[in-house]
Amino acid sequence: MWISSRFFVIFLLLHLDTTCSEPFEAHLRGPGFVMEPPGRVEFSNSSGGWLDCSASGSPQPTVDWVHADGSAVTEIHGVRRVLRNGTLVLMPFAAAAYHQDVHNTIYRCIASNSVGRIVSRDVQVRAVVAQAYKVDVEVLSAARGCTAILRCVVPTFVKELVRVVSWVHEPAIYIYPSLQGDGKFHLLPTGELLIHNLQESDESQSFRCRSMHRLTRQVVVSSPTRLRINSHRGIISPSVVEHTAHVQVSQDEGAVLLCVAQGCPSPEYSWFTHNGAGPLPVLSGPRVRLLGPILAIEAVTGEDSGVYKCTAGNVGGEASAELRLTVATPIQVEISPNVLSVHMGGTAEFRCLVTSNGSPVGMQNILWYKDGRQLPSSGRVEDTLVVPRVSRENRGMYQCVVRRPEGDTFQATAELQLGDAPPVLLYSFIEQTLQPGPAVSLKCSAAGNPTPQISWTLDGFPLPSNGRFMIGQYITVHGDVISHVNISHVMVEDGGEYACIAENRAGRVQHAARLNIYGLPYIRLIPKVTAVSGETLNLKCPVAGYPIEEIHWERGGRELPDDIRQRVQPDGSLTISPVQKNSDSGVYTCWARNKQGHSARRSGEVTVIVPPKLSPFQTNILQLNMGDRASLTCSVVKGDLPLTINWRKDGRPIDPTQHMSVKQVDQYNSILVIENLGSDHTGNYSCVVRNSAAEVENSQALLVNVPPRWIVEPVDANVERNRHIMLHCQAQGVPTPSIVWKKATGSKSGEYEEVRERPFTKLLGNGSLLLQHVKEDREGFYLCQANNGIGTGIGKVIQLKVNSSPYFSSTSRSVMVKKGDTALLQCAVSGDKPINIVWMRSGKNTLNPSTNYKISVKQEATPDGVSAELQIRTVDATDSGPYFCRASNLYGNDQQLVQLQVQEPPLPPSVLEAAMISSRSVNIKWQPKTLGTGDVTKYIVEFREADRSLPPALFVEQWQQMEVKDPPHFNAMIENLKPATRYAFRVIAEGSAGRSAPSQELVVRTEPQRPAGPPLSLSARPLSSTELLISWVAPLPELRHGDIQGYNVGYKLSSSGNTAYNFTSVSGDGDGGNGELLLSGLAKFARYTVVVQAFNQVGPGPLSEPTAAQTMEDVPSRPPEDVRCAALSSQSLQVSWQPPPIYHTNGLLQGYKLIFEPIIDDIQPSKDEVESRKTTALTMVLTGLRKYTNYSIQVLAHTRMGDGAVSKPLFCHSEEDVPEAPADIKVVSSSSQSLYISWLPPTEPNGVITKFSLYTRVVNGREELNNEKRSLPSQQAYYEAKGLHPHMEYQFWVTASTRVGEGKSSRVSSQITTNRVPARIISFGGAVVRPWRSTVTLPCTAVGKPKREWFKSDVALRQGGMHNSQLLDSGDLIISSLQLADGGNYSCQVDNGIGTDRLTHVLMVQVPPTAPTLYITSATSSSILMHWKCGFTGNAPITGYTLFYRRANGNTDEMQLSRHASSHELKGLVCGSPYQIYLSAQNKVGTSPTSTILHVRTQGHSPGHPASTALLAPNSTSLMVRLHSWPDNGCPLLYFVLQYRAVTDDPESEWVLVSNALKPQRRVVVNNLQPSTLYQLRMEAHNVAGLSQADFSFVTLTKDGDPPPPEIIHRGHRGQTTVIFANINLLIPTIAAISGMLCTIIMVIVCYRHMLKNAQPPAEQSNIQKESLENRANSEAAQRERYYATIHKVSMQNNDKIPETSEDISPYATFQLSEAGGNMSQPHHGGPANTLLHSFMYHERALAEGCSSPPPAASKNRRRHSRKTEPESEESESDQDQLTSSRTESSNQHEGKIKHSIIYHGAQSSTSSDLSPMSEQKSLPRRGRSRYHHQQYQFSTNTTPRHHNSNKMNNNTTSNTNTTATNTTATPSTSSNSNKILSPRGGNLKSISSTFKSQDSIQCHIPTLVKSPSISTQQQKQFHKQQLQSSSNSQHSSSNPNSSSLKQQQPLLITPKLHQLEANGQELLGLDGIGNSPLVACMPPSSQFRPIPHKSIMPAHEPPHHHNHQQPHPQQQQQQHPGTLLNPSTAMLSSKFFTAPTLPK
Fold first, then answer.
1. Cα separation, 249 vs 264, whole angstroms
2. What pLDDT is stored for residue 1624 in this prediction?
3. Which of 212, 677, 1337, 1376 has the most CB within a 10 Å radius?
4. What is the distance between the alpha carbons of residues 1990 and 1833, in angstroms, rounded to a whole number?
5. Sign of the torsion angle spanned by Cα atoms 288, 289, 294, 299
């Protein structure tokens, strides 16, 4: 049987799907409200109500009503009905039929269709049952001439439904509400009636109130009520009786705010708005009208909302009320998108957009609904709804409902559609094999959108149509389709492949499985198959029966396939692709066979049809104009007949009514012709061609351009003033025309300007123009133009006329006339003419000149209207009152109030008082006595100085006047007064009728004022590159205006464009003294502009004239930029650069320095190849360089102050050159006819070696027989010449070549070939450098087959002799895991009996360097200067250093330093803080261990204590504290804590805290003290190093400023006696501590003597002598290095020159170690210790000043004062005597008794002014002094404090315990070492000098060496003894008989290493400190740890507390060992300790 192709099946399924999906594809649209019911509906029971609701959608939705709970609204007969159009009708009902659930409830309208449903907003329905009510009248009476108020009282149950419509003035005068009134009666919009200017005649009149129910329209009138006039006549302050607290209106509506006040006289109203930062008055404008108690605002906007305040005031006072206006701006709600199509499983997202006037609105309460039901997740304030995993249940209608706080709601709808989803099979059948007979059921289930259609096929064809087959199909509630095939009695022919196909427009899916029925083969019949040419044909053989063995295809008797396009599939189907008409048409036969041989055959015909193909249109879019002719041609270029050609427009067949014709030219061509194009011809035209094979379509768009034409043509229009008008103008055309409105600037034919969107002018989208609140300026001609680019466009001019009723520019006017004059009342009215004007009196009496002789009326026309005038002659008080100018025309009427006031002379003002008093102005205020404020036109304020005594005749003339008017206020500001002066004031009122009498006088005194003059004599001078000293003189006394409290110093860079100054405040003296300030931290070498202003208790005065000064030069802080380098040749480089940035040059550039060095990886550079060259140019050529070498180049700029920052290294390579000669060449005989040549490459290759050239020459005697040249690769360094002649001499030499050329030749080596081959080594020896832990191969290649032996330093090596070596058979020696010990000479010796040879390799192993030796040179308060010596470099050059440092308890910082550096200065450190510093070195192998950690403390200590007389200056009721007198001890003060208390009998009296954070200033004053009182003052001073506390007593002066009584002064002195002797609690521990210390000293000395008995014998002296000689050789270099490290940046003073050698250094040098802090104690051990080397300080002052030098100035102010005064300035007068005696004592001792002893003093004593080497004030010694004066080592631990204050317990205690024992010096002696001079030349000095400060601190000035176990005590003694004996012949002193006492010393001795240096005939004892740093321990002077001198230093009979420096006995001096013994008990207790490495052995 035949099998059909799937073409027909697919076509059939497509047809079925199209038919089924047409309802789905119809444009379904969800419901939407056309008319949504309002949010609130009110009606009466008599009228009933109705709610309209209509909706649109597709299909048309149904409208239903529900309650708030969702239940349906049903009809109630006679009560409620629901009409078919959706209207809900609530019918009229009787009162008894009222039901709350019907008549007072919430309804909702629901619109629904098949897409979904939507719900409307809540509709609040309220039915009101009509009830009878009465209204009453409440009268608020008033006095005559005032205003009465009548109020209509409505019952509360109907108050909100009833409004007052009018009042009836009996008998029949109706008064209606208005904004202004008629002057007499004024009915407010809220219903109150105001009756102005009450007269007695008004009491007889009666009034009634008329009210109306707004629902029932019922009018209720009150009973008549009469007025009552109060008998009381006088001033009544206003009171607000009615105001609208809250007014709520919609945008663009009018708002009326009422504020009614009652008072007498009638109050005047003022309106204010509180919408801004403060209250602002409300001013009349185009939209705002102020009408007394009414504020009317037209066309309100959102900006008008807010709080308003009305103020009603008269002469009696004022009253106010607040009103709130709320403008409800309409909001628009929109859901984006409004239609959303989402595939199943996707995510839908809706956003609710809430806008108002196009602008987004903030957070709103948003509810989301789905199909009328609120979503459970809503209720939150969100604007986005996300629906995840969309399913069928999620499609429908969504609503966003926005509920505002006011209660109204707004909503928008959106539709969620399910997008197309291709079918998905949910269930399918499986393959089955059955016997014939049973029933079979096949089932498929599919889902998709649209709902898919399922069809069935059997072997690709429809199922057989017989009664045994039944197909069923249904759709579930979820939209899934289920289809099944039931076969009732299965037969063999039913077998085959069944397929179910599910398909919709989104896609198609199928499932196939076989149903096998046992039986013989059977092939079903298939109709004719039609295939499409060019496509694939699949022929399936519909075979039944089971099992089938094979299936074959035949055509024309030949079995297929017989063509490459044919293929038989495994399932037996035949596939042909592509199909060809001529080749593939015919009859095909299919036959099938089973295993038993049974077969079946079936043939069928295949017809091939060619599908049509169309020629494309020329363009996609054809654009023509209306009226043109158009033709479209459709041509078929290919396709089988018959062909059907059809034309469609927009997918639909051509409509004959559209005047289009189709011409069929032939079977292949068709033409569509349109004779006359119109607008309806625009569309998409398609030519559809179909044959039996396919249908094709070709489309083209036709766009007909249509010129604009009117839809709505504009017409002339009229509008009343202040109304809205819409000017319509609509046009259509293709493209859509644009509408533009223009307005004529003049006449109709004049120029036009375009109308643009602005307030009250709206351009709508449909082209209409909306004009709001039209005024006269809108009148004129308007042009509407429509244009779309087709034609010239259309336009229409219309005229807009504004019909204006009369109106006045102002609502009221006031005219004041002096009594007896003529009053002139004018009014100007605008509006359309004719205008009639009538003048009225009090709103009811028309003024007629014919009946009143006093008046006359004039009227004349104006361009805008009419101007009227009313004259009243000879006015008097009866003419006062309201007059009305009433104007009327055809369009309305209006009136203006003109208030006439006839004035009399006013009364004098009263209650004159000063509201504000300042230095130059006084603000006075007063109260008027006049009833009406209009009686006064101005006030005259008179004033004069009250301090003058003037004659009475001149009294009036001295008054100065000031007028207050326009309008007259009740206050006045009198200015331009003198500060601090008494003035008298009085006020006179003046009206139109004259002046009043003066008021009572007021006398006031003006306040002081800020200074009026600037400081004088301002000067600025530089002190450094970052400091300027500013000084000035106080302003003139007459311009100070008070006590000068201080000065503000301002400074700025002169070059900056900034006009603002940086100000710093300086406290003044209060007496106007001079001042100065040190400005620090300034830019270097910058010009500054400085100004100064003084300030007093009021404020600052004017700035002084600016002065300019420039800071000093400094070195550049930035390196040169853009450094570049280029190679010029092999030995020259060109370097260029750009100057540093101008702001970083810090001076005038003097030139540049170029630093360069080659980068050479040598083992150890023989010399430092770092070179530098100077230039002033920006480029330099470096010549004479190494060839082909990489250079490191750095550039720096320098000023006259020194070198600046260095640029980063730039690496540059010189060019190649020809190489030098090869280093060596060997020629040896390897056989009788061969020679072996080897050579070494050049030591200077000067480039990359490219080849070697080997030259050979054969010589016979002197005759050259032959020569040749042979080129060899650069990697080859050997060659074997073979085939040589025997016994001939051959000469060889070698050259090397680079790319530049051939270099020099090596030496010529010759060799004669011989039969005997002696042993020779062809390898080369020499230096071999390798890094450690690597492997090295030492070659020993030889000829002659010799025997080899290896030697290391002449020691034979055997195989396995070294654990890391290996001897190869080739003779090479391999050494692995190299260590430093493997280095040395390795020799290889060969011997073969004929000859012998030897080769030596020098192996050098490179290892990481050893740790450098670091020592501290000096320390300042913010920097530390250090030096170091490099240790063993590890056989490799040092590449750099890493410096590690950290503050105590801080983080460790590291810094990379240059390999050339040997010193560094750490800057920017914290004052008085301990630091830990260590260093490591690096070479190319690795990093060294770190050096021993040094503990260093920067200089500076906690604050000291000032003298009481210098600090305090008491007065009668105040105390002046001179804070600047407090010593800071090197660290700037941060703040003070100051408190005091009166000294009374009560010891528990409380302290009064003045300040706990008082900033440092010059002075501070403590006030509120009692005269003649004893006070105790407690102060704390804080700096970064700590704090100090001190108590002071002082007595205030008497009230008259006299000294206090003597008994109070004596009481204060008694309180200051020494506390330690009066307090037993302190005395006992002090005595115990001293006793314990003495016992400890004795025990230590005994122990030490016992230990010294076991000292080593003197056999080890030679080692020490040898070491001394080695150190002596390096002495000079060490001295110079130390010297230059010491004079770091020493400023030159007194024209001293820098010393050239160490001999020029003054011996008066101070070696100082800063105090260390933190946990720095070290146990006593013998290992390497820490080092802190000497700190040189060269003092220029005489030695007599040594210990008396003032302290360094740690702060800028202290440094300034020290320049002006002595170290003890006026702040410490009490210490002068002690200071003088101390200096004298020191001088006498030095010059008289021990002339040749040196006193080492500390530069950081509390009064020293000598700075450290890092400071500015360094000096050099005067060259005239003798260098060496001393013969004795002196240990001076001078603990005498600089301030001998008896009140300071700490100082006294320290002095008592340590003074005499340590302040000991010796006289010259006759011993052998009597002439030993302690000199700084040796480096490590042997003395310790320490100054104990007031804070229990010690400074160690001379570092010494702690003995190491590596040097025995005996060695030291022997060495010392030898040194002393060797110099005894050159000295005139005798030997020391007690030198044996040195043996009593023990290992804790601090001792230096000694040298002998000859100078001036004396033997010098020096120290070698380079690399051998001493151990120094610095301890506080406590009983636990202090320096202990030898007990024999002091005579036993000497008192312990003697302060004079005594000379010990010569014998005692000889026993003194050059060292200091340390207390051994302090190993675990010392907290301040310096350690250093020990001396080498």
1. 33
2. 52
3. 677
4. 13
5. negative
Count CB neighbours of 1186 within 10 A. Answer: 15
In angstroms, the CA 1830 to CA 1878 distance is 7
Nearest to 1425 by CA among 1751, 1682, 1730: 1682
Tokens of 21: 């999906």
Q: What is the DSSP letter of 960?
A: E
Distance CA 330, CA 336 (A): 19
**HEC-encoded secondary structure of 1423-1468:** CEEEEEECCCCCCCCEEEEEEEEEECCCCEEEEEECCCCCEEEECC
Q: What is the 3-state secondary structure (H, E, C) of 1819-1838?
A: CCCCCCCCCCCCCECCCECC
Burial environment of residue 225 by CB neighbours within 10 A (0 to 12, 13 to 18, 19 or more): middle
Report which of 295, 273, 268 is spatially closest to residue 284, judged by C-alpha positions. Answer: 295
The confidence band for 1873, taking pLDDT boundaries of 50, 70 and 90, is: very low
Give the span between the Cα atoms of 942 and 926, in whole angstroms: 13
CB 413 within 8 A of CB 335: yes
Distance CA 839, CA 843 (A): 9
* Edge-first strand listing for the sheet containing 845-846: 812-818, 892-903, 881-889, 836-841, 845-846
Mean pLDDT on 875-881: 83
Six-digit token string for 1263: 């005759």
pLDDT digits (tens, 9 = 90+) for 527-582: 888 899 999 999 989 999 999 999 999 998 898 998 899 999 988 899 999 999 88
Burial class for 640, CB neighbours closer than 10 Å (0-12, 13-18, 19+) = middle
Report how far apart, in Å, the C-alpha atoms of 1617 and of each of 85, 778, 1517, 1852 are.
114, 100, 26, 13
**Calpha distance 1419→1409 (Å, rounded):** 28
Give kind and range of the element (H or E) at residue 1022: strand 1016-1024
1251: three-class secondary structure by DSSP? strand
Q: DSSP 3-state assignment of 1612?
A: helix
Whether 413 contacts 32, CB under 8 Å: yes
pLDDT tens per residue across span 174-194: 888 877 777 788 888 888 888
Q: Rounded to whole angstroms, how far apart are CA atoms 722 and 771?
A: 10
Dihedrals φ, ψ of 1144, to 5°? -120, 5
> What is the Cα–Cα distance from 15 to 1333, expressed in whole angstroms?
88
Query: What length does the chain have?
Result: 2041
**For residue 1833, which phi and psi values (nearest 5 degrees)?**
-80, 125
- With beta carbons less than 8 A apart as the criterion, state whether 568 and 541 touch: no
Buried b / exposed e over 1836-1866, threshold 16 CB at 10 Å, is bbbbbbbbbbebbeebbbbbebbbbbbbbbb
Distance CA 857, CA 883 (A): 13
CA-closest candidate to residue 1885, choices 1873, 1900, 1903: 1903
CA distance 424 to 431: 20
- Asked if residues 889 and 829 have their Cβ atoms less than 8 Å apart, the reply is no
3-state secondary structure of 298: coil
Q: In a 3-state reduction of DSSP, which class is residue 967?
A: coil
Closest CA to 613 of 673, 690, 536: 690
- DSSP secondary structure code for residue 1100 in this structure: B
Its pTM stands at 0.41
DSSP single-letter state for residue 1733 = -
Cα–Cα nearest to 1801, from 1714, 1735, 1890, 1691: 1890
Measure the CA angle with vertex 995, ends 993 and 998; round to 5°.
155
